[in-house]
Amino acid sequence: MEEQKKPDLWLIVSILGILTIGIIMVYSSSSIWSEYKFDDPWFFAKRQILFAAAGLIAMTVLSRIPYYVWHRHAKVILVVCLIFLIAVLIPGVGMVRGGARSWIGVGMFSIQPSEFMKLGLILFLARFLSERQKKMASFQEGFLPSLALILVPFALIMLQPDLGTGVVMVGTCLVMLFTAGARVSHFMWIAAAGAAGMIGLIASAPYRIKRITAFLHPWEDPLGAGFQIIQSLYAIGPGGLLGLGLGNSMQKFFYLPEPQTDFIFAVLAEELGFLGGLLVLSLFFILLWRGIRTSLYAPDLFGSLLALGIVGMIAIQVMINVSVVTGLIPVTGITLPLVSYGGSSLTLTLAALGLLLSVSRYSAK
Q1: Secondary structure of residue 355 in the 3-state scheme
Q2: Count H helices, E strands: the chain?
Q3: pLDDT tens string for the chain (365 positions)?
């Protein structure tokens, strides 16, 4: 393969632009809460800068390693991710936060194995599908084994439970399956089964039912299930075209719960207005455009599927997060990539983008 001298500059600019805005907004959105809780307005921002630095190092290193090297290591990576995903379910090992056993504590920090699994599964599925492309038109030989591969980690994630992460992972993998040559008719059967499964998952957990009812009628329980979405809309509305100004959000004053995570886009829209939100979404559009271009011009199917999986994962997360914040879909607990506070999510996203940059070094154009 003939390697390009430099990775895609547009990708790098968009990544660094979103990351910079994210660090600024983590400080702005969390300063009041972190000063109240930790007596340090920079508590979350300092940690986010540390995670960003670690992620940028990982991104730089991975961008310089030929992406095809990971083809032969994909199976080992998947097994390690599965081990961590099982370990988090063991009492005394996994940490419970917000009703979900999704973290493993490591000293002062904690890691979220499901974030590692998303990238590990993308890597292995890219290898698996590239080796079975001729069989993908067959339901039994191609589609069904691929689906089984996806459902095993999904089931482990649902035992935590973490529906949002599971939906992102499955959605990303289905995009990869479709691109690899799976038939549309196969997806129709899966869509029907998936709809029935989602109804069952929602019905099995009362808090998920509350989220649905809160989405449909938030004002029926404004201090309970409908509280988050109402406060989010209260943040977006006053922002107008230009916003209230950086640092001038009112909703971060204990109205919007932990505004530095799932609802950070609401604070951004309040402080920077419609134009600020449009700037962030435009940077994401550039990232996704160049990522899809990288996938199209990758020299082999493994590289193409790997790039597409990473782009698909980010695109799905952005669409879900922004839709939740603007009240288009029920609350799911999905963060905004590169913007929301979160160690595992930020570091793994930057690492994944390092792989995408590596593929871009070998693109035909």
Answers
A1: helix
A2: 12, 3
A3: 555 668 889 999 999 999 999 999 999 999 998 998 888 999 999 999 999 999 999 999 999 999 999 999 999 999 999 999 998 888 877 777 766 777 887 655 678 888 899 999 999 999 999 988 888 878 787 788 888 889 999 999 988 888 888 889 999 999 999 888 878 877 777 777 777 776 776 666 666 666 677 666 777 767 766 788 888 888 898 888 999 999 899 988 888 887 899 899 999 999 999 999 999 999 999 999 999 999 999 999 999 999 999 999 999 999 999 999 998 888 877 899 999 998 888 999 999 999 999 999 998 77
Closest CA to 318 of 339, 297, 341, 342: 339
In contact, 176 and 126? CB cutoff 8 Å:
yes
Closest CA to 331 of 230, 196, 246, 181: 230
Sheet of 109-111: strand order equals 94-97, 100-106, 109-111
Please give the Cα distance from 195 to 329 (Å, whole number): 16
| Beta strands at 100-106 and 94-97: parallel, antiparallel or unpaired | antiparallel
195-217 core/surface letters (b: 16 or more CB in 10 A; e: else)? eeeeeeebeeeeebebbeebbee
What is 177-242 written as a DSSP string? HHHHT--HHHHHHHHHHHHHHHHHHHHH-HHHHHHHHHHH-GGGSTTTTTHHHHHHHHHHHHHTTT
User: Cα-flanking dihedrals φ and ψ of residue 7, to 5°?
Assistant: -70, 170
Under DSSP, is residue 292 helix (H, G, I), strand (E, B) or coil?
helix
Residues 6+ apart with CB under 8 A from 211: 225, 330, 331, 332
